[in-house]
Amino acid sequence: MAVGTYTHTRVHEKTVFANPYLRCDECGGSVPAWHNNTACGCNSGFWSEPCKHNAGLTSECPSWSPVNGCSCPAGTHPVLPVPR
User: Fold this and answer.
1) Boundaries of every domain in the chain
2) How far, in Å, are 31, 40, 55, 74 from residue 50 at the CA level?
3) Degrees (nearest 5) of the Cα angle 74, 68, 34?
4) In 23-44, which positions are buried (b, 16+ CB within 10 angstroms) versus exposed (e)?
5) By CB count within 10 A, which of 1, 64, 65, 75 is most buried?
6) Which residues are CB-neighbours of 16 under 8 A, at least 6 positions away?
């Protein structure tokens, strides 16, 4: 009798944020996206990408908006990483 081996894989869904200044409240790392467990069917919860913390997010730019971007004076925020 043959024994079948099954490998279940899943592509995790990420929701990318428009605000490039978001930081994780736990580690302070840049958070460009979060894991969307509703979209991929996971029951493991939500987490920030890439740090995987389930913590709040804070924007380093209090003036940021999706229409105007950041209107703070130049040099008041860290240099943003180049998206890959």
Assistant:
1) 14-56
2) 7, 17, 12, 27
3) 95
4) bbeeeeebbbebbeeeeeeeee
5) 64
6) 32, 33
